[in-house]
């Protein structure tokens, strides 16, 4: 039970403070924006 509580606390921390990063092609980004406009922010790194 202790492990589950620790895991739940970690998930809660990530839920409030986490950042998700994805590497995707321009076509995939365009498709994602058409399906969920404004859902994420695009930053070019190269």
Low-pLDDT segments:
none
First and last CA, distance: 45 Å
The average pLDDT score comes to 90
Q: What's the order of the H and E elements?
A: HH
What percentage of residues falls in helices of 4 or more residues?
55-70%
Provide an overview of this structure.
With about 45 residues, the chain is mainly α. The protein has a domain at about 20-45. Helices cover about 55% and strands about 0% of the residues. The radius of gyration is 16 Å and the shape is elongated. It starts with a helix and ends in an 11-residue tail after the last helix. The model has no long low-confidence stretch (mean pLDDT about 90).
Short overview:
The chain has 46 residues and is mainly α.
List the helices and strands and how they pair.
Elements lengths: L1 H16 L8 H10 L11
Q: Which terms would index this structure?
A:
single chain, 46 residues, 2 helices
